[in-house]
Write a structure and sequence with these properties.
Distance between the termini: 30 Å
Oligomer: single chain
Shape: rod-shaped
Order of helices and strands: HHHEEHEEEEHEEEEHHHEHEEHEEHEE
CATH architecture of the domain at 407-556: 2-Layer Sandwich
Radius of gyration: 60 Å
CATH class of the domain at 407-556: Alpha Beta
Structural class: alpha+beta
Number of helices: 11
Length: about 575
Amino acid sequence: MADHYQATYTWIRQHVTLVIFLVLSVPFVLVIAIVYFTGYQYIKDSITQRANSKLSDFAAEIRYNLDSAVTDLCRGLSFFAESDSLGDLNGETRLSRISSRLGKGTGDVIQGIALVDHDGRILAGDLPYDSELADLKHEEWFLMSCENQVYLSDIYFDSQMHPYFIISVRPVQLEKHSMLVAWVSGLWLSSFVENVRLGRTGEAFLVNSKGIVQSRSRLGKNFGLKLDIELPDPNTNGADLVRFQNQDQEVLAAVVNLKSNGNWFVVAGQEVEEAVRDISMVKVVFGLIIVLGIVFIIIIGSLTSSVLMRKIRQADEKKCEIDEQLIQSQKLAAIGQLSSGVAHEINNPLAVIGEEAGWLQDLLKKEDARNFKYGDDFRDSLNAIVDQVRRCKEVTHKLLSFARKMDSNFSDVDLREAVDEVVGMREQDAFLDNISINKVFDKNLPIIFSEPYLLRQLLLNLLNNAVDAVRKGGKVTIHTRMDTQDKIIIDVKDNGVGIPRENLGKIFDPFFTTKPPGKGTGLGLSTCHGIVNKLGGEIKVSSKVNEGSTFSVILPVKSPVDHPADAGSLNES
C-alpha cells in the first residue's frame, strides 16, 4: 500500500505543508508589517532625533565657548581703541603694552598689533612675521575692515605657513578712519574644536561660508580643506542638520553660525553608522525576530504536516484493513452461496451412488453370488466407492458448514470438556505418529456462553492443521487462558514446518492450501475464520518457518451483543 500510494502521499504532504505555511505566514507577515511601519519606524525616528539633538547640543556648546573667547578678544581690542586717541596709540610702546594685556593668560594669542590708516599704511605697531612688507591696502581683510567697525577675517598663512586671522577695530574717535588691527593665532582658534571628542568618529571644526575649513580637527581635517557641505543661512539661530560625504563615509552633522563672526560656522559631525548605531541593533533584533518566526513557522508547519500525514496514513491503513476484511467477508459469502448449491447438487448423486454401492454389496453377500469368479474384485471396488462417497460427503458437509446452512444454538460451554472431547478425536491417530498433544488450562476458567458445535468444529479444524503440520515426534499444545475478565484465549501451538510470510495473508482464503493434492480442501481455516466471526471473536496467527505456528482464538465469555443466543444459521446472506 505504501509504494502504491507514495506519490499521492507526497502530493498531499506538499500541498498540506504549503497550506499550513500560508496559513501561518500570512498573519506573521501582517504582524511584521504592522510592527515595521509603526514600532520600528517610531524607534528609528526616535534614535535619529536623539542623535540629531546630541550633535546640536554639542555644536551649540562649542559655539558658546568660541563666541565667548572671540567676543572677549574683540571687546578688549575695542576698549583700548576707544579709550586712547590717535596720538596715544601712535607709539610702539603703547601698542606693545596693549598686545601684552590682551594676550595675558592666553599665551601667544596676539601675534602682533598695529595702527593702520585708511590707505593701508602702518602708522605704528608690533608687527608679526613678514607683515611689515605687506601691501595692506590690497588685502581682502583690509577692504572689509574699511566697511565694518569690527571685522574678523578668514584664516591666512604667513611665509612659514603659520595660520592666523585678523581682528580689526575702527572706532569713531580714531582720526581719518584709522583702525587698530590685531594678528591672532589660528592655532588658538583651532584649540576650541580640535580636541573635542564625540564617540569614535565624532569631531568638530570651523568652516567659512565657502566651505573652507578654518581650523584643525581630531580626525585629520586641516586649515584650508574644501568641503562639499550645505551651510545654513547665517541669520538662522538654531542648528541645521546636514549630511555630507567624507572619505566614502556619510557624515551626519549639526551646523551652527558663530554670533561673533557671521562668516564662520561650527560643524559638529559624526559618521551616520555610529550616530545611529542603535538603529543597527534594532535591525538585528528585528531580523532575529523574523528569522526565529520563520524557523518557528517551519517547525510548526513540518510537525503539523507530519502529524496530519501520519493520521492520514493510519486512516488509510485502517480503511485498507477494513476493506480487506470486507472483501474477505464478501468472498466467504460468495463462496458460501456457491458451496451451498454445489453441496446440494452433489449430495443427491452421492446418495444414489452410495445406495447403489450398498445394494451391490448386499447382492454379493447372497449365497448364489459367493461363487462369482470376480467377487473379490467387485467387493474391493465397491469398498473403494463407498470410501470415496463417504469422503465426498465429508467435503459436502464442510461446504454446508462453511455456507452456514446448519442450525446452531448458543448455550453454556465448559472449555475443558470441549478441548478434551476434540483432543480425544485425534489422540489415537497422533499417538500412532508419535505426536504428543498437551493440554494446558489456567485455573478458574469460567463457563462461556457460546455455540458448542461451532466451537468444537473450530477446535477440531485447528487441531487437525497442527497435527498435519508437525513431523513424527512433534508436539502440539492447546493452552486455554484468560485474557481479561470478559475475554478468553485458546492458543493452538505446534512445532511444525511453519507458514511462509508471503502466505500469512492468504491462509484464511477459501480453498487455499499448502497440503499435497488429496490431503486438504482449503476450507478448514476459512471455516474457522467464519466461525470465529460468528462467535464474536477474532483469530490471530504467528508463525516462523521450521519453528512452528501459533493460532490464537480470542472469544468473549458472554454472547456478543450482535449475535443473540437464538441465532439460527451461520449465515443467512
